[in-house]
Design goal:
about 625 residues; alpha+beta; Double Stranded RNA Binding Domain; 3 domains; 17 helices; about 45% helix; RNA binding; 3'-5'-RNA exonuclease activity; RNR_Ribonuclease
Length: about 625
């Protein structure tokens, strides 16, 4: 390159069928350093669609109505007219005016400086995701150095986001990844490579810095806000669970987690004020890198360009709010229509397959729908129970379907349910998963181990040898169902047998759980004080099970923005020996942390009261 001006260079990385190219990236080592260990100079160029669409004109009015470009298998319905798309798109054979984001980032992924404003692209290249991935690993490719550095940058930014707690995950082998809302999506085959990760991380970095700049300038734009449901759990814990399941290759667990994450992730929304982005774990975010195909990006670009040129915003606060409301309502209506369409199509297909009676030939996903339909209807067509039994014997039957038949199967499934009961008795470690499915069905969503599943596990000193007793209670909708206590030589087996007993109870099947043989200890004193090694929350539950505390209850409150939530837990009850009310509060970034903090204090109060009670019982009258 005779004249190398990195600020005007860019690589457009898109799907093979892309016609509306609206972003390009470039990267070089920061300053005079030899490589990425010194940091990065990064440029993201965004097509100046605002130059080609007059605010309030016919093209703008139609774009506002459509909200975004719609991609279909057989056609694309563009948000903007074809001549505008062609004029606004970045092309490698002509200079293009852009809106440029220039970032200086250190080796740890921290942004040292960000500059935003009009830019220009004078030399550029187009590549597919796969071509970019190949070039990043091929030293002979003319763009290898740039793309290898781009991949290094993407990996650095991804690691920084994950370290901050973002629910960020890519499994290019299976094709699963998380989107910005924390939902698991399946990538197209053309995106299952490192080229896709390069694009995603560059755009996330650009959008985050544009939003941060707007906040610093006190400039209202269309911010992108997102929050998870309060019961979702900590994103870092969800990501850890996702990593573990991906490493194990457990398809059934993966699908269950995918469904759970979909249920607890709310849709992100647009608005002129900032509420944080929980899925990305960013305090502020926007969409600004796709103005040719997303209307909010076009609106935001107009505001940014006006600000960069020293002009007032082309939108009043009321107009910006109205635009955000319109876009949010439009996207919500699309989601509901899409869900209903697929629901009706799946229902019709399931009903048709019910009549075929050739269940063995059905792929598992279709078989699962037919089985669920039959269980809900309360009767099964001839052959379905036999094929379900065949899949059970072949270890093909997954947890969701096993639990549905076991818990709710009607008379047509009764012999199979009894077989399942015997299978579960041989493999009691599966019983807790069955209880989890039961709770999910009752709650219509995810299960909280703090509020919906109550375990009491403690040593049994009244018997010789090590022996532990376990009970489990499920709490939902003002209802509590509890297992009998089961005694085993270790805590794990005691839990499994208690869960097995409760699962059979819920299914209306014989209880095949068991207790370990144990001999009572002669004159064994009744133990009240819990061992110091037991964690505080479990210790408090044990005191309640031993009758030291009556009416133990836990209440939770949450404050703060979605990305910086603070939970408050209050635990309280009555000391049986004195009738004294005991209570404690704890705070933390998760429910579990808050409960642990409250339990720590409550345990001290309980044990102090217990000690006073014992002392009093020995005092002379």
């Amino acid at each position: 390159m005779a004249e190398h001006n990195p600020a005007e260079h860019g690589i457009m990385i898109d799907a093979p069928t892309t016609a509306d190219r609206d972003d390009a990236v470039w990267i070089e080592p920061l300053g005079d350093g030899p490589g990425p260990e010194t940091g990065f100079d990064v440029w993201i160029h965004i097509a100046r669609a605002a130059d080609h669409v007059r605010t309030g004109g016919p093209a703008d009015t139609e774009a506002r109505r459509r909200v975004h470009t719609r991609y279909r298998a057989d056609h694309t319905k563009h948000m903007l007219p074809a001549p505008v798309v062609e004029a606004a798109s970045l092309t490698p054979d002509r200079p293009c005016d852009t809106f440029a984001v220039h970032l200086r980032i250190d080796a740890a992924g921290r942004v040292l400086d960000a500059e935003l404003g009009p830019g220009r692209l004078t030399r550029s290249w187009t590549m597919t995701h796969a071509e970019a991935a190949t070039a990043s690993g091929d030293p002979a490719h003319p763009l290898h150095d740039t793309l290898a550095l781009a991949l290094r940058f993407a990996q650095t930014m991804l690691a920084a986001r994950r370290n901050a707690g973002a629910l960020a995950f890519y499994d290019l082998l299976s094709g699963f990844a998380t989107n910005e809302e924390g939902q698991i999506v399946r990538l197209d085959s053309a995106e299952r490579n490192s080229g896709y990760i390069i694009v995603q991380e560059f755009m996330i970095a650009a959008n985050a810095q544009i939003a941060a700049w707007a906040v610093r300038e006190d400039l209202p734009i269309l911010f992108r806000n997102h929050r998870l449901a309060a019961v979702a759990g900590d994103p870092a814990e969800l990501r850890g669970e996702l990593d573990d399941i991906a490493a194990s290759g457990d398809g059934a667990a993966f699908e269950m987690l995918r469904t759970r994450m979909k249920m607890v992730s709310r849709a992100a929304t647009y608005g002129p004020t900032v509420h944080g982005h929980h899925g990305l774990q960013l305090p502020v975010y926007t969409h600004a890198t796709s103005p040719i195909r997303r209307y909010p990006d076009l609106v935001t670009q107009r505001i940014l360009l006006a600000a960069a040129l020293g002009h007032p915003s082309p939108y009043s606060p009321e107009e910006l709010t109205a635009t955000a409301d319109h876009v949010n309502e439009h996207l919500d209506a699309e989601r509901r229509a899409k869900a209903e369409f697929f629901k009706q199509r799946a229902h019709a297909e399931t009903a048709r397959q019910m009549e075929t009676a050739d269940f063995a030939s059905l792929p598992y996903k279709q078989f699962a729908r037919v089985l669920q339909f039959a269980v809900e209807r309360g009767e099964a067509p001839a052959g379905l129970a036999d094929d379900t039994a065949r899949r059970l014997d072949a270890r093909e039957l997954q947890l969701r379907e096993f639990a549905s038949v076991y818990l709710y199967g009607g008379a047509d499934f009764q012999p199979l349910r009894e077989r399942m009961n015997r299978r579960l008795a041989r493999e009691p470690q599966q019983a807790q998963s069955v209880l989890n499915v039961y709770l999910q069905d009752r709650l219509g969503g995810p299960v909280s181990n703090e509020t919906n599943v109550r375990w009491t596990v403690e040593a049994e000193p009244a018997y010789e040898g090590p022996l532990f007793g376990a009970q489990v209670a499920l709490v939902f909708d003002e209802t509590r169902v509890e297992s009998p206590k089961r005694l085993q030589r270790n805590k794990k087996d005691a839990r499994n047998q208690a869960a097995l007993a409760l699962a059979a109870q819920l299914a209306g099947l014989p209880d095949l759980s068991s207790d370990a043989a144990a001999k009572p200890r002669a004159d064994a004193p009744r133990k009240l004080l819990v061992d110091a090694a037991v964690n505080p929350a479990e210790a408090v539950q044990i005191y309640a099970a031993r009758g030291v505390v009556d009416g133990l209850s836990w209440d939770f409150e949450v404050d703060g923005p979605s990305h910086e939530r603070v939970f408050t837990c209050r635990g309280e009850g009555l000391l049986r020996s004195t009738g004294e009310h005991v209570a404690a509060e704890g705070r933390g970034p998760t429910k579990q942390a808050a409960k642990t903090a409250a339990s720590l204090e409550l345990r001290v109060v309980i044990e102090a009261g217990l000690a006073l009670g014992e002392t009093g019982s020995r005092s002379p009258a």
